[in-house]
Design brief:
Elements lengths: L1 E7 L5 H11 L2 E4 H7 L6 H10 L12 H8 L3 H24 L6 E5 L14 E6 L2 H12 L3 H10 L3 H7 L2 E4 L4 H24 L9
Parallel strand pairs: 1-3, 1-4, 2-3, 4-5
Helix pairs in contact: 1-9, 3-5, 6-7
Length: about 210
C-alpha cells in the first residue's frame, strides 16, 4: 500500500486536492477531522485538555470551545506544546487504526496540515505539498474564513515555511490556476506517479525506482 502524506500552507487549497484524490480512488485520513474526533464530548482527549487548561475551554453544551482554547494557546509556545502533546498522539493512534483497515492494494492519503512541523515526512512513501502565494492565502483567509488580516498572517507565520515544506516534498503542486486546472493536475499526478508507484510496491519493488 502506497502511503501518501498530503500537506501545505493554510488556505493553499489542500481540501480540493484531497477531494480529487478520493475521487481518483484514494482512501483519505484527515488529521483535522481526527483532531476534532479525539476531543469530542466524553472522550479521554477532552478530559485531558480540560485538565491542562481548565473548564473555561468548555462550551455550555460540554463540547470543546475551540475559540477559547485558541485564545489560550495561540502565540504561547509552551501552552501550544502542551496541547500538541495531548492531541498529536491521539490523532496518530486513531490514524493508525484507520490505516490498518485500508486494503493492501489501496493508496492511502493522510492529510496532515502540520506534517513538516511534527517531523512525519519520513513516515510516507510520497509527500505531496500544496502551495499558493502568501497573498492569495491571506485573501482567502480574510474573505472566506472571516479572519482579521493580522490573525491570518499570524497563522501563516506559525507554520513551516514554503521552503521547509518543499525540502521534504516529492511533488509541490502550485495552486495558482483555476479549480479545473488543479483537478486536472491532481488526476495527472494520480495516473503518472501514484498508481505506478503503488504498482511497484505491490510487485515488491521500492517506490523510489519509479520516475
Amino acid at each position: 500500500m502506497l502511503k501518501v502524506g498530503l500537506t501545505g500552507g493554510i488556505a493553499a487549497g489542500k481540501s480540493l486536492v484531497a477531494r480529487t484524490l478520493v475521487e481518483c480512488g484514494a482512501t483519505l485520513i484527515d488529521a483535522d477531522a481526527l483532531a476534532r474526533e479525539v476531543v469530542a464530548p466524553g472522550t479521554p482527549g477532552l478530559a485531558a485538555v480540560v485538565e491542562a487548561f481548565g473548564s473555561g475551554v468548555l462550551a455550555e453544551d460540554g463540547s470543546l470551545d475551540r475559540p477559547a482554547l485558541a485564545a489560550i494557546v495561540f502565540g504561547n509556545e509552551e501552552k501550544r506544546k502542551v496541547l500538541n502533546s495531548i492531541i498529536h498522539p491521539l490523532v496518530r493512534s486513531r490514524a493508525a487504526e484507520l490505516a490498518a483497515a485500508v486494503p493492501p492494494e489501496g493508496i492511502l492519503v493522510q492529510d496532515i496540515p502540520l506534517l513538516v512541523e511534527t517531523g512525519q515526512a519520513s513516515s510516507f512513501d510520497f509527500v505531496l505539498v500544496v502551495e499558493a502565494p502568501q497573498e492569495t492565502r491571506l485573501d482567502r483567509m480574510v474573505r472566506d474564513r472571516g479572519m482579521e488580516s493580522e490573525a491570518a498572517q499570524a497563522r501563516i507565520d506559525a507554520q513551516a515555511s514554503a521552503a521547509e515544506r518543499a525540502a521534504v516534498a516529492d511533488v509541490v503542486l502550485e495552486n495558482t490556476g483555476t479549480e479545473a486546472e488543479v483537478v486536472a493536475a491532481v488526476q495527472r499526478l494520480w495516473d503518472e506517479q501514484l498508481v505506478p508507484r503503488n504498482e511497484a510496491l505491490l510487485r515488491g519493488e521500492p517506490p523510489a525506482v519509479m520516475p
